[in-house]
Structures are given as C-alpha cells and as structure tokens.
Amino acid sequence: MDVRTRLRDFKASIGPAWSELKFTLRRIRKSPLSIVGIVIVMVYVIIAISAPLLAPAVDPRDPYAIFHDGYGPIPRPPGSPVLDSYVIGRGWMAHYFGTAEGQLDIYYGCIWGTRTAFRIGVLVVVISLLIGLLTGCLSGFYGGIIDEILMRFTDVILAFPGLILAMALVIALPLSWSIDIGFLILVILILFAPILIGRFLKIGNIRAFMLSLLGLATFAILYGWVLGNPLIYPWTLNLTNLDKVLIALALVGWPSYARVIRGEILRVRQEDYIEASKAVGCSDFRIITRHVLPNSIYPIVIMASLDIGSIVLTAAALSFLGIGAPVGFADWGQMISFARNWIWAGIENPWKYWYTFTIPGLFIFIFVLGWNLLGDAFRDILDPTLRRK
Amino acid sequence: MAENILEIDDLRLNFYTYEGVVEALDGVNLRLKKGETLGVVGETGCGKSVTGLSVLVIVSPPGRIEGGKILFNPKGKPVELLALNEAFLRKVRGRYISMIFQDPRSALNPVYTAGEQIIEVLLHHKKEELAERALNRIDDEIKSGKTGFLTNYYKRIFQHMIKNPKAPSLQLLSKIPIIRRYNRILKQEAKKEAVNILRIMRMPDPQRVVDMYPHELSGGMAQRVVIAMALACSPGILIADEPTTNLDVTVQLQILQLIKELKEKFASSVIYITHDMGVVAEMCDRVAVMYAGSVIEIGEVLEIFKKPLHPYTQGLLESIPRPGFPFKSIEGTVPSLISPPKGCRFHNRCPYAMDICTKVKPEMVEAEKGHFVQCFLYR
Lengths: 389, 379
Fold this sequence. Notes:
The structure holds two protein chains of two kinds. By secondary structure, chain A is mainly α. Chain A is 71% helix and 4% strand. Chain A has two domains: 47-175 and 239-387, MetI-like fold, CATH 1.10.3720; 176-238, no CATH class. The two termini of chain A are 42 Å apart. In chain B, the strands form two sheets. Chain B has an eight-stranded mixed β-sheet, sandwiched between helices. Chain B has helices at residues 48-56, 86-92, 114-125, 127-143, 151-163, 168-173, 182-200, 206-209, 219-231, 249-265, 277-283, 301-306, 311-318, and strands spanning 4-16, 21-33, 37-41, 63-72, 79-80, 97-100, 237-241, 269-274, 286-291, 294-300, 365-368, 371-373. The chains are: A mainly alpha, B alpha/beta.
C-alpha cells in the first residue's frame, strides 16, 4: 500500500468519529456557559503549568513553600513593597495581592496553590473513581452475595459524615509505611496465580481463585507469625500531609461513585444486547468492559468532572481546620485559614484586611465554578438523551 | 430417519421470586432432528423463550435450571450441555448454537456499529480462519513486492495463530500497544467477512451498513444484522425467539424467507419460537405445542393442523381469527405457575376433563405415528 491509499483508509476509518467530534465542538460553541467553563479551567491549567514563570520560586528546593517577608503578624495590603533583601534578591519587588498573617505572600500562595488544587482534585477523583468502578461493576454485574457484601460496606462508609470521616482518616494515617519488596512481589504473584493454576490444573476460575486465596493466607501467616515479618528488602513509602489528605478524601469519596455505577449497570444488565453477547459466547470480563461500561459510564464522567471542584472545596475545609497541608504550604484553603483572625478588623474599618480572605476565596470560587460549568458541558455533549436535543 | 442433534430430557426450571417459586418449566421433552425446523408455539409465559435460553445455558437469576438433560449431538458425539463448565460453554455459544432475539433494536449494543458487533463474533470464534486469510493476503503482498518492515513479524504471528489461536503468548501480545497492531489486519479481514455475510443477508448497501450504528438502521435491517451475528459461524442449531414479532408484515415476510434460505446455507437445524400459527405453518417441519411449562403435543405441521389431538391445541387452532367467523377463545385463564394445578395443568380449562386429569400428570404417548400427545384421552 502506498502512502496515499493508506491516508485514504485512515480518513475513512476515523470518518464517523471525526464527524461526531465536529458535532460535539459545534454543541460546545453554541452554549456560552460551557465555553466559559472551559476557558476558566484552561486559564487555571495555564496558571498551574507556568507557575515558575508567574511566581519564580524563592526557595528552589521547595517551591510549594510560600515565602516569608519577615514574620510580622499584621497583614499588609496589595502593592506593599518587599522588605526582605533576600527575597528582593530573588526578583520580588512588591506583594501584588498583599501579605497574610506572618507576612506570607498571597500572590505566591495563590499561583502555586493552583498546582495543589489540581493535584488534589484530579488525583482524588481518579483514585475514588477506580475504587468505585471496581466495586460498582462487581456488585452490579454479579449481584447476589457479592453485591450484598460490597454494598453494605459502602453503606457503612456513606453512613459517616464525609468531612468527619476524612478528618479521622487524616489523623489516623501514618506518615510512613514500610513494606518488604519481596513480600509485595510474592503477594502479587500469588494473586495472579489463579490464571496459571486454572490453566494447568483445568479447574474452574472460582476454584482456582479460592486456592490462591488459601495460598495467600498460608503465606501471610508464614511470613508474619513464623518468620516474624522480616524486612529483607525494605521499601519505605513516605507520605506528606497532603498525601494523607489525598488518600483520606479518596477513601471517603468512592462510595457515591460505586452506587451510581451499580445502578447504571443494573439498568444496562437487563438489556437484550447483554443477553445477546452472552449468547455469542463473550466472557464476563469482556461483557463488562466492552458492553456494559460504555453504556453506563457517562453519568460517572459527569459526576467526576463536577467533583474535581467540590473535592478542592473539601480539601480547603480540611486545610482551614488545620489538618491539611503543612503550615506555609501553597494551598488555597490554608491561605483562608491564615485570614481567620483578620476577617473583622474593628468597628471603624471592618473590611480593612479584605484581601487576606477575598483573593484566595475568589481563586477557589472561580475554580469550582469552572469545573461545574465544564461538568454541565460534559453532560450536554456526552449524555445521549440530551445530546441531540 | 435423521438423527437427533438436540435432545432435551425432562428439563425443569424454576424462577425464585418474592411471591414464591415459579415452576416455569415442568419437564420439557424435545427432540430436534438434523436439518429440520421445529416450531415451538404457545401462549405468553408458557416457557417457550426460557426453553430457548436453557439450551444456551444463559438463564439469568432468579431463574435456575433444576434438573433434566440437554444433549447436544453435532457429529455423533453427544455432549451434555448442563454438565459443561462455563469456559467450554462459551465456545459452544455463538459457534455451535446461536440465538436470534425478539427485538432487534435492543439486541444490538447502541455504542458499537453493526460491523463491529459482527466482527466481535467472528474474532471470538473464527480466529484461525481469519488468520489464514490474513496470511494469504500477506503472502500476496510479498509476491507483488509490497512489503513493509513489519510484514515478516505479522506473518510469523499469524502462522502461530493458525496453530493455536488461544495461545497465552498471543493473549499477552494482544494486550501490548503497537505490538498488537497485527490485530488490525485481522479486523480488516473480519470486516470483509462481515460485509460478505451482510450481502448474503440481502442487506442493501452492506459496505455502508457495517459502519452504521443501530439507531440508524430500520427494524428489518437491524434484524438482518442480528441474524448475521447469529449465523456468522454457521452454527449447528439456530434458536429464533420470535424474530419477526416486532416487524411490520412486509418485512416479516422477507425475514421469514431469509431465515428459510439461510437455514439451508448455514445452520443445519432451527428452533423457531413463536405464537403465530400462520408463521409456523409457513416455516416449520414439526411443531411442539407448549402449555404452562411443558410440551403437550409434538407432530408434523400438517398433521397438527389437520388433526389436533390435545384439547388445548384444538382450542388454540380454533381461536385463530378468521374472517366471517365469530371470535372464539379457550375458556378460563392460564394458571399461575406459582401453585400450578395438580395433575394435567390444563384440566381446569379442558372441556374433556376427567377425574384422573386432576390427580396424575399424563405421560407422553404416541397417538399416531410421529405424533405425540400428553393427554389421557389417547391412552
């Protein structure tokens, strides 16, 4: 085949997808709110990417640490000159957005805080989406006892107020985990054993799985009790406070995804085409990944894009309560918590220190708004029932 | 006499619902001969469709098969389907036994094109054949001097695939991006085959239809795609579960003729599930009449139409509306299968009911040659 025919084949093969994409773009162009949402999120992305240009790091080893301009307690208004000669030496002449309590630069905190916000929002949503997808798929598709166990477990987590549970988890999680790499590899091997065992012994998948669980239990007992948990090739995972917040929020956030996915799968599972794909001889894994999920994923995509905004809010609340990022870490929630003492500045000029809470608050507000608008846009273009309206 | 390709013996199936246990199939006995079309008729809820699903062993909960035997005998070696494990059944489904569903629109997955769904079946069951074709194509390319630098790699892969399409090494390779590009050639071949099958289905403009999504197809076209999926691997048995019920009359006729023709070409035997006696007369060689979960009468089509033996069959045939005659129907209603009547399940609607009918379930008797009936009248 020469290049031209290949190009033609390629064009023909992506033809339908391309026309759908064009339709999608036209839809987006027609609704101004979704454009606003996309623009807002894009601006934040640009800010996050170009943070080193917008706010050159004062301490290059730790750019997320907001720089101090002395340690004076009283905030100074936007445009005040920088006093610290070291900071001036790094190229900073003025505090564009003023300083917070302890002379922390608000501009610097807001710019680098964008990266923190994206990290928390996206990572938390992705992790909880993965957990939710796994549990939701298993319980929705198989039903019965598996459904019962998994769903009661999600109920337990849903029963706690999310923020309180997240706080408890942040406090309870250790700062470092030590695990033996050999142990880890063996555990993974044993977990994957059913595939091989099933092939060679010609027993059913479920029996092989049971066998591997038995093997895992025996191995764990041998390793932990008999050998006394030796760390031969220790591998230590050190968590920062921010990582702890991240894990805690993900562990709290997944049940709602699991519920929605389960509901969707229960709906799709009844459809004739699932029965038809069984009649054709598809395996369960294939039915779930190729036939059930593509028909049930849209609500979750929309939910996830809305959640990226609200997760940032929750993280800000945790930071405000003082159990989020470490002190001085560039994080919007913490910036607001610095402003806690300066919201009311006395009877004659109550909003004297408005910049301490308004500016980081605006950053959070617009970020959440952007993701909400984007979520709505996603719904309009992805939801097949709304798409062609 | 042709041998039986499928034997269903005393099949029992229950649905476990909150209202109680529904005894949906109460000892179904069926014989399907090689090359014949067996009609299964009966009212709604008498267990026709469930019998079809049981043959594929895809009855979904709360339904459960409680007993009986399904012997599948494609070439002299009978296999008991209910005793097979899931992995083996997956090889049977779609390859040796396949099914056409009632509503073609909902039997197609809305997110894939018609072609993709046929290709899925082909890739699942006919990998060797496709690999062979791909290999031939590559050989042709080599002969005409058009070789890319991956041609030899593709060739080796396909040679391996023909030997053992389910080899673990191939399964591993098919998961790695870039390396799995050989799948594309396979898919192109499968697509050609799909177009070919659609052409045999007398689908107008099959080249275009393979790239269409189910919502773009008309009912008749969608049903043709479903039939194409079912017949893609020339199965031994085709189970057609009311394939024309949701279509309008002219399309119905086309589909019926199509199934009739394709039966000769692809499938050796057809189980045709319907409640339309007219269709049965047109399509089938033999008919099994079902009532409340059991087969009550089996015989040649003409035989049954000329001389129905079971009182239910008589009632059923009389209740076909005919111009110029007053409407007739069978007295009473279908019994609840949660607590079915003892003895013959038809006795409380039967004009000839006797004492024994309320106590004992009648045995199947051969009233005339090749005409079986389950009724005490013919003992």
